[in-house]
Amino acid sequence: MWHERDISHSSVERVILPDACLLTYYVLRRCTGLVEKLVVHSERMRANVVDGSYGLVFSQPVLLALVASGMSRDAAYRVVHVTPGCHGTSAGRSVPFSTGIPR
């Protein structure tokens, strides 16, 4: 009687759906509380991402712009990935990434 269903695992099947729903509810409640209390400081984000990295977050668009302007991709890659090592701070001010690109 191979076509008859074995009921040895049926208790697991009855428990897993309610447990999964309760877990989903719990996670959604926790995430809702997290997002509601989230404070975003845009000026600190700018300082950390853009100014703190000397504009390196924009290296891909710069690379594509150099290639679009006629520079070979290999040369543009070298400019974009070698130039950041030359940048740092100058008199307490960050040096923008794009200033190191040869014209």
Layout of strands and helices, then pairs:
Layout: H1 10-36, H2 42-51, H3 59-68, H4 73-82, E1 89-90, E2 93-94
Antiparallel strand pairs: 1-2
Brief rundown of the structure:
With 103 residues, this protein is mainly α. The protein contains 4 helices and 2 strands, in the order H-H-H-H-E-E.
Fill in the keyword field for this structure.
about 100 residues, 2 strands, about 5% strand, elongated, disordered C terminus
How would you characterize the overall build of this protein?
With 103 residues, this protein is mainly alpha-helical. The chain has 4 helices and 2 strands; from the N terminus they run H-H-H-H-E-E. The chain has helices at 10-36, 42-51, 59-68, 73-82, and strands at residues 89-90, 93-94. It is elongated. Residues 88-95 and 99-103 have low confidence and may be disordered.
Proportion of residues in helical segments: 55-70%
Q: Can you tell me the residue ranges where pLDDT is under 50 for at least 5 consecutive residues?
A: 88-95, 99-103
Share of residues in strands: under 5%
Give the averaged pLDDT, no decimals. Answer: 76
* Helix-strand sequence: HHHHEE
Number of helices: 4
The gyration radius over C-alpha positions equals 27 Å
Terminal CA distance: 82 Å
Q: Structural class of the helix and strand makeup?
A: mainly alpha
| Oligomeric grouping of the chains | single chain
For the largest sheet, list the strands in their spatial order: 1-2
E-strand count: 2
Q: Largest beta sheet, briefly?
A: 2 strands, antiparallel
